[in-house]
Request: fold
Amino acid sequence: MTAALDTDTALGKPIRRKEDAHLLHGQTNWTDNIQLPGTVHMAILRSPMAHAKITKLDVSGALKQTGVVAAYGAKELGELNGGVPCVWPVTDDIKMPAFPALAIDKVRQVGDCVAVVLATSVAAAVDALDAIEVSYEALPAVTDMEAALASGSALVHDEIETNACYVYKMPCGDYEASRAKADVVVARRFINQRLIPIFMEPRSVVAAPMGMSDEITIWSSTQIPHVLRVLLALVTGIPENNLRVVAPDVGGGFGGKLQCYREEILVTNLAKKLGRPVKWTETRSENMVATHHGRDQIQDIEIAATKDGKILGLKVTLLANMGAYLQIITPGIPLLGMFMYPAIYKMDSYDFTCTGVFTNKTPTDAYRGAGRPEATYAIERIIDELAAEIGMEPMELRKKNWITHDEFPYTTVAGLTYDTGNYEAATEKALAMFDYDGLRAEQARRRASGDPVQLGIGISTFTEMCGLAPSRTLGALKYVAGGWEHCTVRALPTGKIEVVTGTSPHGQGHETAWSQIASSILGVPVEDIEVIHSDTGRSPYGMDTYGSRSLAVGGQAIKAASERLVEKARVIAAHQLECSATDLEFVNGSFHVKGDPSKSQALGAVAFEAFTAHNLPPGVEPTLQAEATIDPADFSYPHGTHLAALEVDTETGQVKLRKYVCVDDVGIQVNPMIVEGQVHGGVAQGIAQALFEGAEYDEDGNLLTASLADYLIPSAADLPSFDTATTVTPSTTHPLGTKGVGEAGTIASTPAIINGIVDALRHLGVTDVAMPASPQTVWRTIQAAKAGAK
Amino acid sequence: MAHITVTVDGTSYKGEVEPRKLLVHWLREDIGRVGTVVGCDTSNCGACTVLLNGRSVKSCSVLAVQADGCEVTTIQGLSDGSEWHPVQTAFKECHGLQCGYCTPGMVMATVDLLSENPTPSEQEIREGLEGNLCRCTGYHNIVKSVSYAADLMSAGPTKGAK
Reply:
């Protein structure tokens, strides 16, 4: 029954998560838990070479091994060797080389799939890989982007006769005119290093013919079951209406599971061919080379300003590493950053050029923030460098140039219109929490005394564009899908509610938060609402979860569908209560006749009437449900101010993050506890880029950081607790007033850390430090600065 | 093949295993205890942490044959579901999990940490969980959860409520 409920507070309460009970008891359904009778397990022979001709491949030996059911190279697989799709051809003349699931004749990255074995156990399949005969003839590996573009470079793909994938330009205003007017021009080259997403649950996929029909069900540890279904239909030729894709419990994604992977294509095709379930789960070592990577840009950035700190123009020239192939949105990642280099600052001109470059490395694609962390890093770093150049306090320089709260909505030089924001308020709050003035005084004392441990203060005043995205805008950018989201809300005969969403959570707490949104409108307790998601059989329409879109876009659909359901119920209730629909008010889940408190009907009772259909008004169809498919009016623009205090030991290069304060403005919050958790995790990943992580290759194209023993993601001992707070400036383009939050922390925190390290060392002549700022790197930077000063 | 007898979450299991089989694979594949998960192949992540005779181990670093005659407690045996272990209660209350994949290992490592040190400082918690990686939470709320669990457990024999 519908209990009394304060609908004003269902939205905005830090209620504990519905998801946690099963996760805390091990009652989970990770894809790798799925054990279907008759399953064969796939193991993959991967290339140990970055670039080579396959001179011999003979899988027949594997077929003789115990338990082996089948083995295939590209030749044996024939037309079932589907190609990995790319859905974002960013320019008309982009080069889009083929990316077959199993390499044909050549391998182009360490980890390329060369052959597969299917056997009745994982161990048998893996053992049988040793019986495959394969030989390679090494080719020169292309590992450096600038060398790749030089004439005479070896080619990753011979047939396209260049390693340049595309060149994208967006000139806004007249940068050369701004530069000519400027008193000061500061230019820097930043390396935004390659990262590996490292979601904790390795990828896994199971595909099974379902027998009773032509349906093939695919369970995959993916962020995008709906998009994956469309793409698998296009790639495999299996009719879309015969494919059901389910993302069961999914253990993190961070963009790394926003993909149509070659292994998903292989497992689907082989399940159909063999007529039995096929399963593959990656090892972490496979994950490191075969799951797409992120970032990897060389950023040349130049800022032109007056000597008193007025920014006039900005020029950004990027080399973006595509890796060996294009995956789902590989070429588009830098474009998601393209709009954000001007960030929160007013200026006359902005000139952007990006060249996508093929190399013999793992393909890059979305990783938490996807283009915006790179942009935010470069702009927030160059702002600090400009401040140093003109002798201005870095926060004062920001204040002089940022959009003030009374200037919104504001159309930036890059052409985006930010709906709302209040950079002053977030900054003021952050400065107070941080004790900015006190720390600056301590910094001055340490400098004066020549303390070997210097203090640095790092600032990042960021905004970002998320909530992907208005479909029309995506179309204009040549992205081949839309950015809408769907929701169906059903009131069941027993009064329970189903919220069917097209978003696909993998840690974000959608079941809880979506219940809160529906509860606030339907007046039904959160525990009586079930959120159905991540299964194209049960939630047929959706565009899934990435780009901090789930609440920003999906939340709107939940709101609209819930409101439509109430309106349908109102008509039925008016009929039951023998009054006009306009005489009813809907409070706490019940319709009440205005002025007659004795006459009311609860939503559950209306649902039962709609189910029996014994007494419905003329023209009203049975069942009580409503749906909404919403295309967002605009992107979402969360912002905030992040401040870091770092102690840098100038004798050892050790950096200690002493204090981290962040004030984020993500608009209206549905569940502040979840918001805070998203910020914590995001901040940690951004700090990790600054201090710990980096995918390193040798000159032959071998990934040197190919396990969790070599690639350093931080542990609890490597991080402090964070001081988080929020300001609330509601979005005016999103009906709930919400903004995205999933990526904000990652976007904001990286420059705060590096700005802090440089700030600690600037008096020694340091003007930049490479990421990750390991003790060795920091120490060498200090030594080089000292040597340069002599 | 070797014959082993292992008590897992209070039930005795007998089986034939290949000597090379890891305990975590035996738990997942042979006896269907899939609440314990695999996150890496270098013993770095700790997602597979279980209690072996009451002490935490990474079950990817123990052979199934080494567990012969032992008692194993997994996340699935920590409570009966109606009454939660205080560590489970604390992780929910403090939002100490997001995707939940590291959670089985994080919870079991916490149980061991608190049995050894019932009143850990923040630094002791951070160092105590150094072998368990989480990618979602930034550890902030995990640390809070462990402190909260310590408080719940020191408050007396009352177990955490749901």
The CA atoms of residues 33 and 125 of chain B lie 28 Å apart. Residues 2-77 of chain B form a domain with the Ubiquitin-like (UB roll) fold (CATH 3.10.20.30).
